[in-house]
Fold each of these.
Amino acid sequence: MLALEKVIASFLSLPGLFILLYIPVVIYLLRKARSVLIKVLTVLLLMLMLITFTGWGTRVLVIPLERRYQETGITENLPVVVMGGGIHYSLNGRQATLNSVSLQRLVKGYQLYRKNGGPLLYTGGVAIGQIGPSEAEIAANWLKEMGVPAQEIVAEEQARTSFENGLYVKAWLSERGACNKIYLVTSALHLPRTVLVFQKQGIAVVPVPSGYISDHRLSWLSYLPNRGSLNANLAALHEWLGIIWYTLRDRI
């Protein structure tokens, strides 16, 4: 009974409701439309929905990225670089908090710092369209509250993209004149593109995934339309398009 409830609920809530409402349109167009092109596009759109809204898309888009790097080799005393993932600004625009992705990355970086030492650099500037504070500033305040000495914290406040993250971290390493190797902490989904960006800048990295956005062992429920798969697949699609774009721009 519970399984039946799950199936019904998946098609009566978004995004499954889109598929349920679209199926009569598909049947009508396949029967009535004279244009072969319209019929083909109708079926392709249905297939796109099925992939994007379900675990089928997770298998194709998410898992290959998240499985690219596993956490290994966490033994050296290297600088810890944490990639920003965004912040939530308050209504008055003068305050902000780290979003869940950023906080997850920062916690992982903090744990790594506590284990092997620092310094710990957080890279993330002011979001486009906002006036501040920067993401790195918020992260630095959090680290101070956790007891990290100020001299061990580096707030890189200029970068707004993954490419700029790499550029400004490279500049910091050059000024520091020390080891050109770092622990690179970011979400597992984001690591493949980020590693390529940093390697393009000549930075040797030890990839450290901070979290995963999807199960890698999918159940039959995962292949029903669900919001979790939709969110994960859209995030993964963003990364795949980012890899293509950065390749075309010679950034990786």
Note: The chain has one domain: 54-252.
Amino acid sequence: MLNTPVTIIQPSDGWRSLDLRELWDRRELLYFFAWRDLKVRYKQTLFGVLWAVAGPLASMVVFTFVFDKMAGLPSDGLPGPIFYLSGLVIWRYFANALSAASNSLVGNQAILTKVYFPRLIIPLSSCITGLADFLIALGVLLLLMAYYHVFPGIAMLLLPGLLLLAMAAALGSGLFFASLNVKYRDVGYILPFLLQLWMFCTIIVPYSEVAQRGGAWRFVYGLNPMGGVVEAFRWCLLRGAMTGPGNADALWMLLGTGVPVALFLLAAGLLYFKRLEKMFADIV
């Protein structure tokens, strides 16, 4: 009789449970989760990928009418549609990735209770799936910029780094909310409200206006990790057309505050997620 090898899986505590080698060994599973989510998103839809365009464009029209035309809020000298769409493109990636990651464990409870695999793959795949919508929306933004005769410069090469920073903030926050959502389903109702408030605090008023109010306001604004990402995203694409009082030095100071906050969110989210991971299958 042949001896069948037995693998015993035991939970570990702290950072030892973050086995990056195991995650790399199962990278194909990460790919299939991301591909599955992407197909499900557009399966049996009438307009398909056009929904990735309709969302930011509709928000852009509303924001331009309300905040630019009616309220007359400053936009760093940029046309209202470009100012708001440039913020919405990177913001919607962050918000959609955070929302999808937060609901990913509950949405995959049937898999969680039947087979073992690194649970981190599920929320991580949700953040990767959102890249498709981001690239489509970015293409629409570039077309709108061409319409207004605004063209990006060499600073556009910094966009991948900003996207990684947005992904880190979304994944870190998403891991925290995903872990809470397994125990308390109220998270699914609270999160959209929090994201709505977060959005208004991020993309409506340019940082140049906040900077004029003094150092304390600059520091508070910098604690928002997406504040620096959105402003840097605009600067990298539109700096040639900006006429506001903002400057590159102030922008890098803003990122200097936001980057550590984003990395802290990622580290704290990972630690909290791995701490509760061993209980997901029992309570989901």
Note: The longest helix spans residues 248-276.
Amino acid sequence: MKPTRLFILNGGSLAIDGYKVYWNRGPGGDIRFPVYSVLIDHEEGLFIYDTGFDLPHMQTYIPGDQPLQTPEQALPAQIAKAGFRPEDVTHVLSSHFHIDHCGGHEYFPQAVVVSHVNEYAHAMKPPLFERMSYSDLSFDPALECARDGLPPSATTYDRSPRYLLVRGDVEIASGVTLIETLGHSAGHYSLLVELAGQAPILFTGDAAMTPRNLEMMVIGSFHLDPIKATESLLRLKTVQAEHGAELFFSHSMPEFQTWKKAPEWY
């Protein structure tokens, strides 16, 4: 049996105010945070969890988030560091469709996009305050047309990816489980990966951006439902305890700097 390998792909960084990371708690001032993808080389396929941001999109529409990404940090280059090509990826596992988590989905037209059914539906018609968060849906022309209230062209659906829409906790492959953690978005997923010879890794996604979110039980100010988001913080603690998992947070630079990055793996 082929052992599972897990690669952390460094996709660059963004910066936002501390009050956006810690809702009503702060402190204020810019916090620079990492943006990364998780590549899982598994016997049942090659899976990627989240795909970071698209640099030209960020520079054009949201320059205030101060995007930094070198050519080496572009997603195809990071995948090459792990010894693969974008066309090798069989499944794209989406935590959610915010701009810093789906900006590279377009590199994988051959892959099945796994998404929470609620996230897919919400991305079609996000409320006004979330429009910018869902501004980069270029990987799916049909979804983009629905968001903008435009009729799809005759070829739109031909260029849209194949989806596996799910809800609840779902084991996508042996030892690779999407954990439902709603609230930050309509259909947010964290990810639990079991590895031989070490504790499982629980990728929190934006359900908890940093350890401090869990320590203070405070969600980020970017959220759809604060009650569900707070419940998801508790869910992360429960899943961690049940599996003895190590937590990998989505946007915490101090921890990120200590992790192995491709070409190294877990």
Note: The chain has a mean pLDDT of 96.
